Amino acid sequence: MYKVIATDLDGTLLNSDHQIDPITVATLKTLDEQGLQFIIATGRHYCDVAGIRDRLGIRPYLITSNGARVHAPDDTLIHAANLPESTIQRLVAPDVAGAHDRVIVSLFSDDAWLINREAPEMLAFHQESGFAWHVTDLRAHDGVGIGKALYVGDPADLAQIEQRLAHEFGESLYVTYSLPDCLEVMTQGVSKGRALRVVLERLGIAAARCIAFGDNMNDIDLLETAGHPFMMDNANPDLIARLPMVPRIGNNSEAGVARHLRKLFALGDERAL
Prior knowledge:
Structural class: alpha/beta
Order of helices and strands: EHHEHEEEHHEEEEHEEHEHEHH
Largest sheet: 7 strands, mixed
Number of helices: 10
Helix content: 25-40%
GO molecular function, one term: phosphatase activity
Strand order of the largest sheet: 5-4-3-2-1-12-13
Number of domains: 2
Cofactor: Mg(2+)
Radius of gyration: 18 Å
Organism: Paraburkholderia dinghuensis
CATH architecture of the largest domain: 3-Layer(aba) Sandwich
Strand content: 15-25%
Low-confidence stretches: none
Shape: globular
Protein name: Cof-type HAD-IIB family hydrolase
Pfam family, one: Hydrolase_3
CATH class of the largest domain: Alpha Beta
CATH superfamily of the largest domain: HAD superfamily/HAD-like
Number of strands: 13
């Protein structure tokens, strides 16, 4: 019945320390050997996710930057959607991002994570891959080849940025939250769900045969697209309210995705691993 498994990373497949539990590695490898096709769908940068994929030991499709990039298992880029170059200049401007410098601003290009100032606390999210930022003058960037802009800061500051973006750009941008303190911006038409449809069409597999896991607001379209969506117990309350009919499973801190997959595919007691 099931042919494809799509999953978010932070708050979903990764534990509370943003790392991979051994049961998750063992479970995914077993299902991969049984012919299941995996898709990782995340807001993270492609280079970051490629490192995590290598730790998992499988070859999934990679939906990154919330759908602005899609790579095949052999790392071929099969879909890309960039923010308009002129828009980038506005996204990093002080009257949009805030002149107080409390908010960390990042841009994701094809091969780099560009950031406006050092943020060592953010490196804890990238222990599995070793991916790191490059501090640069974002206002001097030409805006070419940027798939995502990211604001990290206090939710109150992010709410103000969100309002400014809505006022200036309306529906020409896709603006979403991956965490309460992470506001993410892509161009119109980008989402994990739309990227999932790109992959399913390439595979020739109906959405009805796809399982998906998520936990936050940037997973809405992913969960609405998959025929068999599941939400983490630790999901954002706003996501739970938005998709009340989606079944909830275990917590990411307890390898909830892996344990649920073991039940769905009758893989037996994980204690035997």
